[in-house]
């Protein structure tokens, strides 16, 4: 991993076929995560991988497998790519290991390979010699995807290795239905009427994460301040993460939010069928639940759709608050479900994250 962190910006190697064009990729919703379609290798081999702003390494399952999980699509075979080159460390292959928040993991070797995306010019956006992970030993993931696309601000994330005219610009629009796109570069700028922006915090103490500062949460008209709690901060207290489904608060503050919901909802409490101790109720309708608003620094008030904050069971008749209480030592996370139907833009150079309320499923139809 030291090799990764010493690596310089790769912008000089990006083969953008038309100056001023912006790369993008098609995205797909898969139950609880959002997948990005991209191509690796020469000839290009398409994979679907999780869009993850909370991690750095872009990796895919690779043959030969020591332990690969079952995957619907064919697994990438590096021996069939003319541009695959294994990284060497002191004469040996360079191993990597990534452990994720949900206890899944990937282990393998680092390599350089050509990554190909779409671009607004209509020509391919080609990234030769991009550092990727070739995963030979991977714990259980779903068979519909082959790996992760690391999009945090670390030096080896895909967005950092893009370089280009507009480094650190990225936007996506998540919806629980249909397909969408993730944009990079100039086409990723989120601006115009209704757009609100909050400060992004990047700390070297916990490098890579995009932190926001959550000032308060409102349950209906009941505003619950972080001020006066251990959750309060001035320079970032919650990670915005596209690769995590739910939202996580430290347990002391989380309980205040849960109590405010309990005060409003009169339905019968139910056990959490997932075993995560979520706040659940027996109900045939989402209408009984209060609207939740996230208040971020700079006066940014995100009024969330009820879909964003309450999850219905597969069989119906039960809804759970999509916020999990975690220990104070774990990161607070603003997950992808809470971000639904917002066009979300990251601008690492200006240190801003912008939100625009959007019907995401209709945006590119």
Automatic annotation (TrEMBL):
One of its GO terms (biological process) is proteolysis. InterPro entries: Aspartic_peptidase_AS, Pepsin-like_plant, PEPTIDASE_A1, Plant_Aspart_Prot_A1, TAXi_C, TAXi_N. PANTHER family: ASPARTIC PROTEINASE CDR1-LIKE PROTEIN-RELATED, OS07G0603500 PROTEIN-RELATED. PROSITE patterns: ASP_PROTEASE, PEPTIDASE_A1. Residues 1-21 are annotated as: Disordered. Belongs to the peptidase A1 family. The keyword Protease applies. GO terms for cellular component: extracellular region. GO terms for molecular function: aspartic-type endopeptidase activity; hydrolase activity, acting on glycosyl bonds. This is Xylanase inhibitor N-terminal.
């Amino acid at each position: 991993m030291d090799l990764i962190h010493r690596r310089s910006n790769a912008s000089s190697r990006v083969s953008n076929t038309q100056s001023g064009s912006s790369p993008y990729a098609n995205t797909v919703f898969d139950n609880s995560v959002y997948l990005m379609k991209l191509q690796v290798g020469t000839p290009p081999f398409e994979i679907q991988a999780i869009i993850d702003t909370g991690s750095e390494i872009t990796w895919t399952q690779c043959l030969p497998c020591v332990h690969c999980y079952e995957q619907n699509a064919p697994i990438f075979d590096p021996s069939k790519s003319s541009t695959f080159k294994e990284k060497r460390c002191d004469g040996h292959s360079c191993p990597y290991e990534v452990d994720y928040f949900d206890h899944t993991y990937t282990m393998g070797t680092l390599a350089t390979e050509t990554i190909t995306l779409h671009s607004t010019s209509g020509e391919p956006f080609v990234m030769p010699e991009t550092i990727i992970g070739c995963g030979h030993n991977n714990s259980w993931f779903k068979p519909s995807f082959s790996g992760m696309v690391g999009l945090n601000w670390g030096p080896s994330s895909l967005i950092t290795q893009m370089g280009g005219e507009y480094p650190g610009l990225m936007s996506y629009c998540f919806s629980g239905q249909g397909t969408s796109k993730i944009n990079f570069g100039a086409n990723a700028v989120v601006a115009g009427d209704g757009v609100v922006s909050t400060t992004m915090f990047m700390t070297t103490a916990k490098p890579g994460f995009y932190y926001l500062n959550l000032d308060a949460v409102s349950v209906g008209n009941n505003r619950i301040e972080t001020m006066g709690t251990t959750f309060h901060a001035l320079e970032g207290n919650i990670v915005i993460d596209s690769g995590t489904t739910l939202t996580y608060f430290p347990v002391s503050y989380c309980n205040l939010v849960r109590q405010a919901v309990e005060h409003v909802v009169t339905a019968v409490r139910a056990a959490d069928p997932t075993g995560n101790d979520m706040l659940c109720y027996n109900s045939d309708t989402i209408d009984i639940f209060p609207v939740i608003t996230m208040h971020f620094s700079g006066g940014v008030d995100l009024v969330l759709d009820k879909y964003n904050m309450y999850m219905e069971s597969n069989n119906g008749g039960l809804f759970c608050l999509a916020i999990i209480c975690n220990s104070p030592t774990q990161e607070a996370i603003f997950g992808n479900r809470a971000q639904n139907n917002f066009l979300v833009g990251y601008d690492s150079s200006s240190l801003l994250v912008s939100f625009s309320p959007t019907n995401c499923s209709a945006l590119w139809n």
